[in-house]
Design goal:
The complex is a heterodimer of chains A (206) and B (188). Chain A has helices at residues 3-15, 20-32, 34-55, 62-75, 79-90, 92-114, 189-205, and strands at residues 119-122, 129-131, 134-137, 142-144, 147-150, 153-156, 159-161, 164-167, 170-173, 178-179, 183-186. The N and C termini of chain A lie far apart (96 Å). Chain A is α/β, with parallel strands linked by helices and 206 residues long. Among the domains of chain A are: 3-55; 116-205, no CATH class. Helix content of chain A is 55%, strand content 19%. Chain B has 188 residues and is mainly α. Chain B has one domain: Orthogonal Bundle (Rna Polymerase Sigma Factor, Chain: A), CATH 1.10.1740. In chain B, helix 2 (17-39) crosses helix 4 (69-93), helix 4 crosses helix 8 (155-162) and helix 7 packs across helix 9 (166-185). The longest helix of chain B has 25 residues, at 69-93. Classes of the chains: A alpha/beta (206), B mainly alpha (188). Chain A binds chain B through residues 11, 14-17, 39, 42-43, 45-47, 49-61, 65, 68-69, 71-73, 75-80, 82-83, 86, and chain B through 15, 17, 20-21, 24-25, 28-29, 32-33, 36-37, 46, 49-50, 53-54, 57, 61, 117-120, 126-127, 130-131, 134, 145-146, 149-150, 154-155, 170, 173-174, 177, 180-181, 184-185, 188.
């Protein structure tokens, strides 16, 4: 065995991996080679120093420990937000849908609150009479097509050849009144949203 | 039978804060000790430990129970330490004046912060010299040596922690030992 081989075996020895027969060979070499013996002693000292220097206690007090534990536990997010965060990470589409829903809802609410004044819409408004917030279809008059009234009272004496929709208002039908289509009243925000959605869809479809 | 850490990890994953606190209790000292030996600064060691636990918490769902929990957590903490040592190198190598305390590959030796605990002030001259010699090791050797001599990990385990073949670990331990032997030979 030469000294380079011996050196390699020494490392194996200090790694705790030296095979038994190699150990006896190394021992034999060390017996006859003072340089390698010296080197072996140096390694042994180095090992001891490393253990001592690295494994020595770091001198932390119980208070240091508690403070760090506290810091760590405060830095991790709580249960709920963590689960929610994980869930959202798993289903990013939900976030997008929720945001979209929020924007739509906000715009509906905004338009819901905005419309406080009387609005009359229809394809044929020539024979309609407006008195204050009353929208009157007088006797003998005929409206061709749909009539939509927001924030007002509909007084129908004549004839409507289409749908009558009243939003946030009331319908007052005389016995002579005639509505060919549907007469509807919308008074709640939810209905309003439904109505808007439906008309959007119908608009898109047509 | 599942190891206690794996059971705690499962509970923590379900949102059990107490279980997570127990994990912190089990590993805080080990991680701190390792980080302190790697970085030589209380402040930095504490930051690394906190960051490591935060990563553990965030990645509990990715913990593979086929791996020892200690291996996993040491890997996270070791990587954070190595990153810091590398950043230090990057910062200090820009500073041409501070070559006085450089290690064998240009790593600057950062003096530890002034909040040195009393037990550290009582260090023997021998310990101080050994500590300084270790501090001049490059990060890749230092991490191997710290895991080996502080936590008494087998070469196999060190390979798992650092995600490298055991032959590489071996080479590094041998070179590190050789380097330190030479370094200390002249001083002790």
């Amino acid at each position: 065995m030469n000294c380079a081989q011996a050196s390699r075996l020494m490392h194996e020895y200090f790694d705790g991996d030296l095979a038994h027969e190699d150990a006896s060979e190394l021992k034999a070499h060390l017996g006859g080679c003072p340089e390698c013996r010296e080197r072996f002693n140096d390694y042994e000292r180095t090992e001891g120093f490393l253990h001592m220097a690295l494994a020595a206690p770091v001198g932390r007090t119980e208070a240091d420990r508690a403070a760090l534990t506290d810091r760590i536990l405060k830095s991790v997010p709580g249960r709920r937000s963590r689960r929610l965060a994980r869930w959202l990470r798993q289903y990013p589409g939900v976030t997008v849908a929720a945001m979209l829903g929020l924007v739509l809802l906000a715009s509906f609410i905004a338009s819901w609150e905005q419309d406080q004044e009387l609005v009359v819409r229809g394809s044929d408004l020539s024979q309609i009479v407006i008195e204050g917030n009353k929208v009157v279809v007088p006797e003998g008059a005929r409206v061709d097509g749909d009539l939509i009234i927001e924030n007002g009272e509909a007084v129908v004496v004549g004839e409507i050849r289409g749908n009558l929709t009243v939003i946030d208002g009331s319908v007052n039908m005389a016995s002579t009144a005639k509505v060919i289509g549907e007469a509807r009243e919308i008074n709640q925000a939810l209905d309003w949203i439904w109505y808007k959605l439906r008309s959007t869809v119908i608009d898109l479809a047509s | 039978m599942i190891p206690i850490e794996a059971r705690l990890a499962r509970k923590a994953l379900k949102g059990d804060q107490q279980a997570f606190a127990e994990i912190v209790g089990l590993y805080q000292d080990k991680l701190y000790h390792m980080a302190f030996r790697m970085l030589g600064s209380r402040q930095e060691a504490e930051d690394v430990v906190q960051e490591a636990f935060l990563r553990v918490y965030r990645n509990l769902d990715r913990y593979d129970e086929g791996m020892k929990f200690s291996t996993w957590i040491y890997r996270i903490a070791t990587n954070l330490c190595i990153d810091r040592l590398r950043k230090r190198k990057a910062t200090y190598s820009l500073d041409a004046e501070s070559t006085e305390h450089e290690g064998l590959d240009g790593y600057a030796v950062i003096p530890s912060d002034d909040r040195t605990p009393e037990s550290e002030m009582l260090l023997s001259e021998t310990q101080r010299i050994v500590r300084q010699a270790i501090d001049t090791l490059p990060a890749k050797y230092k991490s191997v040596m710290v895991l080996r001599y502080l936590h008494d990990l087998s070469l196999q385990e060190i390979g798992e922690v650092l995600d490298m073949p055991v032959t590489t670990v071996k080479t590094r331990v041998h070179r590190g030992r050789e380097y330190l032997r030479k370094k200390l030979e002249r001083k002790l």
